[in-house]
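Standup notes
- HV: blocked on the assembly model, inputs below
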Amino acid sequence: MDLGIDRIINMLVQGVLLGGLYVLYGTGLSLIFGVMRLVNLAHGDFIVLSAYISLILAGFGVNPLISIVIVVPVMFVLGLPLQRFVLNRTLGKGIMPPLLITFGLSVIIQNALQLGFSADTQGLDAGALETASITITPSLSIGLMPLLTFVIAIAVLIGLQVFFRRTRLGRAFRATSDDPEAAEMMGINSRHVYALAMGLSLAIVAIAGILLGVRTNFAPALGPARLLLAFETVIIGGLGSIWGTLAGGIILGLAQTIGAQINPAYFQLSGHLVTLLVLVFRPTGLFAVTRDK
Amino acid sequence: MTMLLKVDKAVKEFGALRVCNEISFEIQAGEALGILGPNGAGKTTLLNLIAGDLPLTSGRILFNDQDVSGQPANKRCTMGIGRTSQIPRPFTGMTVYENVLLAAQYGRRKSEADSYHVCRDVLALTGLLPLWNTVAGNLRLLDRKRLELARALATQPSLLLLDEIAGGLTDHEVHDLLAILRQIRAQGVTIIWIEHIVHALVSVVDRIIAIDFGTLLIEGTPDEVIHSETFRQVYFGIDTDLEPVT
């Protein structure tokens, strides 16, 4: 195996850029857990669902990347009643009800997608952009789509950071996350905050889903594997930490790319191993901030 | 004077345990009412019922002639019922200013620009202005109590519920706190205050109700209540320091 310096740099760059997609997977999951301590087992299926909504729009000739401006609001609006009428009812009754309900949702989404689109794999065609790349040196070229994905991931994180620190609603999110009863005493409707948090989470999921669809093929049953990657990102980075999620995604992406260099079959395995190591040596993740009282 | 709050035969049961047994009382706008009673008498539960943290089992609570019994806590806060908790619960990851700003913006739905003056006034009144940029999790007990009060005030309540706000403070600190409470009263805010430090309580309130085992025992001026036979029996053995603090 030739491991010249160019190869190594190339591998590291690809790994970091792949991490961008995982950052987008993990952010929505982390956001929901941070605000309401809810683990959304249907998270991966919502990612796949978003890709399918984009696929429907592609049928009308909408480029997947343009479809972001439609799919994001659609998923946001979907999140509001989902939280208001379904998930809010499961909160405060222990950890099992939300897990069961979101697991049920996961099964429903998978089967509905299979019913509507068959079990065949599908892909989103973003046109020439998909294969375009920037050549840095003769041995290092960066794909435009991975780069765009990474830039979008960073933009989403910066947006969230500004939202949490600088806006009235962002402060309400933080307050509700910290102590929902005290937040109620300040006039904050925590159930409404939860609904908006779910909307925001699914809006980010929508971006992740479309970028997934452009990057690779997808099928109705692919959700749980996306959920696992989202979990790993969040476990490595630490729950509730925005920049921890960034680090988690990059580390996971690097681990997979480096593993695949050793043997292509180690792509998934090496990511899981890194996650396992973090769980053993630092179970709260590398940058955890969310505390449970 | 107009009636601000009417508690009408309030009952709260946790299973077979009746912690609030048909308590009825009224409070006029601008008045300050003290609630006395031994530990476990149901004082905090009563406050929770008024603030909406707990639903009533039966009875009614009228605020400004409106039945608020079915309203959640956040709604009652926006209607003008502010409260402090016995154990301060600041949002520990936020600064003092952010804590108060949040209360100002959500309590009465004000814009950030309008809230600024509310926050400034409240921080100045509670003596927290020098600490405005401190992360609330790093505050010591007295400042946490001040923040608890500042946040409740920032929601601009017409009725302020205080739950043992002087508990755990030194005499000197209690003295400072009383000065703040008198200023709040002077601004026309109606107060209901639960407190074990009797001399502090009687120096601020107009009227006292004493409760035990969830039942209202006696109601009257501080003098009447404290010198009554019933009250002495309930508090038997407890030294009630009657010298008002000046």
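- HV (later): unblocked. Residues 23-221 of chain A form one domain. The first strand of chain A starts at residue 133 and ends at 137.
- Next: hand off to the docking folks.
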